[in-house]
Specification:
With 725 residues, the protein is α/β, with parallel strands linked by helices. The strands form four sheets. An eight-stranded mixed sheet has the order 12-11-10-13-14-15-16-17. It has a six-stranded mixed sheet with strand order 1-2-3-4-6-9, with helices on both faces. A three-stranded mixed sheet has the order 5-7-8. 49% of the residues lie in helices and 11% in strands. Strand 16, helix 18 and strand 17 form a beta-alpha-beta unit. It folds into three domains: 191 residues, 2-enoyl-CoA Hydratase, Chain A, domain 1 (Alpha-Beta Complex), CATH 3.90.226.10; 179 residues, NAD(P)-binding Rossmann-like Domain (Rossmann fold, 3-Layer(aba) Sandwich); 224 residues, N-(1-d-carboxylethyl)-l-norvaline Dehydrogenase, domain 2, CATH 1.10.1040.50. It is globular. It contains 30 helices and 19 strands. In the central section; belongs to the 3-hydroxyacyl-CoA dehydrogenase family. Monomer. Pathway: Lipid metabolism; fatty acid beta-oxidation.
């Protein structure tokens, strides 16, 4: 394939330098694997070659196995596309060869890249190189011997930390742990690696096969204790995913029966995991995130991003302060505007507290915090807005207030300034109704806390210019967000899709199901919080602000009750005042509050929806379906209305914005694993019993009747035939 190659150059001293080239990160495509086998065979057969240096092109060693191969296998189920790397290449061709190999590492050696390097007899690296085995994030385990060699090089505890947490390290730390043999400047990397390889060949340096080492493993009893603790940790951090325990199985096999037995076990279970539902979901999310950077008529029309150096943020509350934090952390100057000095000082202090929190966690140095704060200024009027490149309005969800602000900023800002709103629900055409600048108005919907959550929902109207969208996408990437471009409607893509989430949970409670049981079922499915604990966290103000908007926009398919109103009247406002559905005490986990039962009963009495006045009897699976199938149904409407460019945009948005389990692939991908026919039949049955809230959409009904996946937005004959291939 063009641009994918392995080359070999033999020096006069007898060292062959084998170079992998597959830009941008020298991914181990099957062509690279085949090329390595070919060049190694040639080097072994040549009398003028005494030793080998293995390296990567363009300043990088290798970013690991080509994930596109996983995606192809998931489509076809054909495991024969996986080349034999672990035994045939790493063990037989490299590690057990009659000539030594030295890995010359620069830039990065991740996944299969690091596994190749560990198969060599020494590793020389530049100081900045990133080293790691992140395979578990894709639902698999290191499959080229990593589960065996890493513990033998760095010790069992450090190896487990790197693998189970997918934690990478720099080469300097790698040298301290024994993973790297020497740190050298980039300009001397190949020269010193050649000398090192030659000295191994001449027996001036030790010829070490890492698979045969046992000195870093400790005693069998110690190893078993460490593995036991790791299994308990894995149950806590990944209760619904198999790859963590399987990884530990492979490591234990090698500890007990020897490195080569471990390699064989690893290779077997690696292939099994490649076809697991977890791997399919995680690989799908990986590609879904990549796909968000392609937006028709925006990213494919030759636009260049304009520089956005100075941004004004209007509103210093929770969202505004979080947005300002994200911007100054990434070298963008911010003017924070508030209505009076009291609110302004509160906003500035919140931003400072956000940064201090990052310093305490160790993810920000005090120097970088001070630099970020130097980019922040507070203002009480619009006089300095004449110098800004973008404005982000982040005030409360009040239509007339937002309209007034947009009328004002249009007068004070330069004519090229981007005018963005952080509204989470209000139609942008209404927000910009009183302006003459609708081509530069768009939504910049951050998720709370804005300096932490990775999703940025970019909302465009029919009038928003492609340049403005492209510029905001660029800003999003600059501040380390994943920008997803969506269409304009009430709630946009994420909140629109998930508005039935809390409402269906509430309906279940009013049908007689226990509040805390609903939360428990949803948490066990993999959501970070159940719907009622999420309401506590968001605060009830959000519920009151958006409830009427959704009820008005989606009349006939919403469920409203007095439950949250009754909680508020009882002096509860969720986590913010320490009591809601749960009790919140500093330093301890939220505790279900049984005393809300009287409030729940009163709300049930008012709603009066229990069939025959008696609580329904449902299984945990039915609870799960009654909460999520209405969400899937609304996702179908969102896709039908072309609010999203592609179905996978909803998948990545649901994962990054709502915490939908990554390993389930996102809301639409998960729904397709369940099946449109089954979801449709359940919703239809519930609609007959409980009313219009559950009524299946025409999009869902059509795909259920035709046996097509929900992710297929276009149902033209050509597209339909392609999808079945």
């Amino acid at each position: 394939m063009a641009g994918i190659r392995v080359s070999m150059e033999v020096g006069s001293e007898g060292v062959a330098v084998i170079t992998m080239s597959n830009p941008p990160v020298n991914a181990l495509h099957p062509t690279i694997i085949a090329g390595l086998k070919e060049k190694y065979t040639e080097a072994m057969n040549r009398d003028d070659v005494k030793a080998i240096v293995l390296t990567g092109d363009v300043g990088k060693f290798s970013g690991g196995f080509d994930i596109n191969v996983f995606a192809e296998i998931h489509k076809t189920g054909d495991l024969s596309r996986l080349p034999d790397v672990s035994v045939e290449l790493v063990v037989n061709t490299i590690e057990d060869a009659k000539k030594p190999s030295v890995a010359a590492i620069q830039g990065l050696a991740l996944g299969g890249g690091l596994e190749l390097a560990m198969g060599c007899h020494a590793r020389i690296s530049t100081p900045e190189a990133q080293l790691g085995l992140p395979e578990l994030t894709l639902g698999v385990i290191p499959g080229f011997g990593g589960t065996q060699r890493l513990p033998r090089l760095v010790g069992l505890s450090k190896a487990l930390e790197m693998m189970l947490l997918s934690k990478s390290i720099r080469a300097k730390e790698g040298k301290e742990y024994g993973l790297i043999d020497a740190i050298v400047p980039p300009e001397e990397l190949i020269k010193i690696s050649r000398l090192w390889a030659l000295e191994i060949a001449e027996r001036c340096k030790p010829w070490i096969s890492s698979l045969h080492r046992t000195d870093r493993l400790g005693s069998l009893a110690e190893a078993r204790e460490i593995l036991k603790a790791a299994r308990q940790q894995a149950k806590r951090i990944a209760p619904n995913m198999p790859q963590h325990q399987v990884c530990l199985d492979a490591i234990e096999e090698g500890v007990v029966r020897g490195g080569y037995a471990g390699v064989l076990k690893e290779a077997k279970v690696f292939k099994e995991l490649v076809l697991s539902s977890t791997a399919k979901g995680l690989v799908h999310v990986f590609f879904a995130q990549r796909a968000t950077s392609k937006v028709p008529n925006v990213t494919d029309v030759g636009l260049r991003p304009r520089q956005i150096k100075r941004v004004a943020v209007i509103g210093g509350g929770l969202m505004g302060s979080g947005i300002a934090t994200a911007l100054i952390l990434n070298n963008i100057s911010v003017l924070l505007k508030e209505i009076d000095s009291k609110f302004l000082q509160k906003g500035l202090k919140t931003i400072e507290a956000n940064l201090e929190g990052l310093v305490k966690k160790g993810s920000l140095t005090p120097d970088k915090m001070n630099k970020a704060l130097s980019l922040l200024r507070g203002v009480l009027d619009y006089s300095e807005f004449k110098h800004v490149d973008m404005v982000i309005e982040a005030v409360i969800e009040n239509v007339s207030l937002k309209q007034s602000i947009f009328s004002d900023i249009e007068k004070f800002c330069p004519p090229t300034c981007i005018l963005a709103t952080n509204t989470s629900t209000i139609d942008l055409n209404i927000v910009g109704e009183k302006t003459h600048s609708q081509d530069r108005i768009l939504g910049a919907h951050f998720f709370s806390p804005a300096h932490v959550m990775p999703l940025l929902e970019i909302v465009r109207t029919e009038k928003t210019s492609p340049q403005v969208i492209f510029d905001l996408m660029t800003v999003g990437k600059t501040i380390k967000k994943v920008p997803v471009v969506v269409g304009n409607c009430t709630g946009f893509a994420v909140n629109r899709t998930f508005f039935p989430y809390s409402q269906s949970a509430s309906m279940l409670v009013h049908l007689g199901v226990d509040v805390f049981r609903v939360d428990r079922v949803i948490s066990n499915f993999g959501m970070p919080l159940g719907p009622f604990q999420l309401q506590d966290l968001a605060g009830y103000g959000v519920y009151f602000a958006v409830g009427e908007i959704y009820d008005s926009a989606f009349r006939g398919r919403t469920f409203q009750s007095d439950l949250v109103k009754l909680l508020a009247e009882n002096g509860r406002n969720g986590k913010s005042n320490g009591k809601g559905f749960y009790i919140y005490e500093k330093g301890s986990k939220p505790k279900p509050d049984p005393s809300i039962q009287a409030i729940v009963e009163e709300s049930r009495r008012r709603a009066n929806i229990m069939p025959g006045g008696k609580p329904i009897i449902v299984s945990d699976q039915e609870i799960l379906e009654m909460v999520f199938f209405p969400v899937v149904n609304e996702a179908c409407r969102v896709m039908d209305e072309r609010v999203v460019v592609r179905a996978s945009d909803l998948d990545i948005a649901s994962v990054l914005g709502m915490g939908f389990p990554r390993y389930r692939g996102g809301i639409v991908f998960w729904a397709d694993t369940v099946g449109a026919g089954y979801i449709y039949s359940r919703l239809k049955k519930w609609a007959e019993i409980y009313g219009g809230f559950f009524k299946p959409s025409s999009y869902l009904e059509e795909r259920a009747n035709k046996g097509l996946p929900l992710s297929m937005l276009d149902m033209s004959p050509l597209e339909a035939s392609r999808s079945r291939m």
